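Annual report, structural modelling task.

Input specification for the pyridoxal-5'-phosphate complex:
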Amino acid sequence: MVHTAAQQPTLAPDTVFDWLDEAADLRAAAGLTRTLRSRPADDPVLDLASNDYLGLVHHPAVTRAAADAALRWGGGATGSRLVTGTTALHTELEDELAAFCGFEAALVFASGYAANLAALTALTDPDTLIVSDAYNHASLIDGCRLSRSDVHRAPHADPAAVRRILAERTHRRALVVSDSVFSVDGNAAPLAELSAAAQDHGAALLIDDAHGLGVLGPGGAGAPAAFGLAGRPDTVATVTLSKSLGSQGGAVLGPRRVIRHLVETARTFIFDTGLAPAAVGAALGALRLLRAEPERAERAREVARTLADRLTAAGLHASTPDAAVVSVRAPGPDAAVRWAADCRTAGLAVGCFRPPSVPDGISRLRLTARGDLTDTQIADAVRIIAATGASHADRP
Ligand SMILES: Cc1ncc(COP(=O)(O)O)c(C=O)c1O
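The model returned the following structure:
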């Protein structure tokens, strides 16, 4: 609604935010209230809600590396790395991450979110068309919004549609953007076909490998390596250090000239404090562990397949996992919340995804198939989800 100056409502200071309560009431009526719950350090529940795909967040090699880094380099990075300097620790992580994933170079950011904003804003201009999968993560969507480029939201996992959109463009440049593994159902994007479409139309490809790193590809080298796209001159990947690497932070991986461009132009690099040394240390510790124990990646995929098969056999509507995420459909947001709460009461933590986190509007439980789960824990999880689902599940 547009008001003229004369019509501006006069509001007492204590009523200025009344509209927030009205918005909260609307969310509550739609079953979309979100609340914070405190988590004890020694939470006894079986955790299938986190993104700790390889079960490394508490691994002694990871926590020790975090502590050592903090003791040596301090509690924080002290400023933007362009201002206060870049530590040898950051450079080590960037070099090792790039080599592990098969790219020329890498640049570390304070989060995966910041890495996605950086890639999307720095690699585009007003004469670029961004072709973005309809189910892409919110950080990619926000990056598209910030880019000031034209954005075409392509149908989900539809390379033929991407081809048509690219063929019809009038823009000088184009960037195709997709999650490698979609965070809700755990399905993989058709990356080979998307890359072929991009190549045929002179476009670049940006892959968000948040859910692929550590799980897909040889020894967990990620989706670009799995699809033979790592190191291509027209391909850039983003990753987060906060999922399979059990740390915090993000990175962009790509050709050296892309990384140089990001250092000089990406606002979430220039105007953001560098990643804290402890997080860099933890990520390096996890990366080295993964290099030494590459079977961890395959185990996470195996746990996902087992979980999905058993949940399906129990009559539930489970997704077919391509990586380490399995989801189970609920009939609506309220049912999903109650189902997740009943699981927790029974000793199992599961994710509960509802709109707007689910692009297709279908609420779900989301399970992380942690690679370190034992067979007994997998059996317990399936038993609890099936038993509590008797009153809340959506049946296929
Ligand atoms: C697909 C995807 N991209 C990016 C991010 C953002 O990563 P971070 O949590 O490190 O900011 C996430 C994490 O939630 C994600 O699932």
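The pocket of pyridoxal-5'-phosphate is lined by residues 111-113, 116, 137, 139, 179, 183, 208, 210-211, 240, 242, 250 (CB under 6 Å).
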